[in-house]
Amino acid sequence: MRLNHIDLYSADVAATATFFLDHLDFLLVEKRGNDQFYRLTDGFGMVFVISSPIEKLGGADQMALNAQTYHIGFLLESSAEVDGIFGKLATTGFSMAAPRNMHGAYAFYAVIPGNILVEFAHRADA
Asked: Which of 73, 85, 101, 108 has the smallest set of CB atoms within 10 Å of its CB?
């Protein structure tokens, strides 16, 4: 398993993305909306998403919503490994739903201690 991506909120998405692009040599992969979402890469496979508060959740940040929206994502080599991690965590009482196909991956999310959302996924195209 390797760290695949980090998805963070910024009050000024464009300025935050520009910092990583201009000063840390990240590369722009995708930009959506009017500076509302940037997907960057470090060139070595790690993806860094910087976005504004999620509109479908009312545009509030996760603290105001008391919900986890921004997260850390781990990429696994197979869907069987995703199922294996899910099986290990199934008895822990962490808040999570069974793995399923979503966002182009076979994945599930778990809320771990500290109220942190973690994604475990396999992408066939990775």
From this structure: 101
